[in-house]
Amino acid sequence: MSDLRVAVLGVGIMGTDHVERLSSRISGARVTVVNDFIAEKAEAVAAGIPGCRAVADPLDAIADPDVDAVVLATPGPTHDKQLLACLEHGKPVLCEKPLTTDVESSLEVVRREAELGKRLIQVGFMRRFDEEYDRLKNLLDGGELGRALVLHCVHRNPAVPPSFDSSMIVKDSLVHEVDVTRFLFDEEITSIQILRPATNPGAPEGIQDPQIAILRTAGGKHVDVELFVTTGVAYEVRTELVAEKGSAIIGLDIGLIRKGAPGTWGGEITPGFRERFGRAYDIQFQRWVDAVRSGVNVDGPTAWDGYAAAAVCAAGVQSLQSGGVVEVDMVARASIPGA
Hints:
Elements: E1 4-9, H1 13-24, E2 29-35, H2 39-47, E3 53-54, H3 58-63, E4 69-72, H4 79-88, E5 93-95, H5 103-116, E6 121-123, H6 131-141, E7 148-156, H7 166-185, E8 189-195, E9 211-217, E10 222-228, E11 236-243, E12 246-250, E13 258-259, E14 265-266, H8 273-294, H9 303-322, E15 326-327
Parallel strand pairs: 1-2, 1-4, 2-3, 4-5, 5-6, 7-10
Antiparallel strand pairs: 7-11, 8-9, 8-15, 9-10, 11-12, 13-14
Helix pairs in contact: 4-5, 5-9, 6-7, 7-9
């Protein structure tokens, strides 16, 4: 079977990582086209990949006859047009979150894909491919812990870009815990509340950080998430499941533990997302490539999952502003055959 010819749109931090990943660690695929709104950057990336070239227009890159499938690592506001173009040309696409930046366009993408009668869109919620989350999911599904009751989550970053604002903590950070909740429990989230603790003095002016998110699922499960993206320390993602017959926790970074002067001990904290989830990204991409080459096209989160996350985050932004509990407004999945 010939290699899957992939176009990578957007070669910033994530896109460049994905080009390198597809070119060196993923079997059965090669990058043939790259695109970026900074043409010089795309040209530089293409020059380092044998048989790859830069295409200036993202829609031309999608339509290119040397492209079988597409990776979207472009800014979120561009996703809706690019996803619709992938659907128009019948090309499978792995889209980094968000699916789109608003609920209405996400729902339109879901509907347009459903009209085709086949799934082409996979959303890049890479935590579903992390080995620790996979073990937690299997433990829960196996019934050993009994009925799940509560999920405690921590999401901490050392810093965020200057362009970050308070709502992006919901849309860009909390969105991962939203998908993890739906993945672990196989339930939709029905309400959300964002609490505003005392702001970190080290946070950029005007940013509400940390935040506490309280989620409730259709089955009555409680989820709380500490979001703290300007810790100045390291990258920490932890998840603890509490159930009727016990509990389980992942993300403790338990590696080498060292002891030194009297009364001290310690280890190392993961410095960034690449170190924590690099392996998950590799697994995600390999499974996606294998799925596309086999004709299945999707082996992971679907367009519906992207829409559901967008709906929850939209309600979260409303709650951030009001401080109250906001019900999540979603259409019934059954109302869109094939979604």
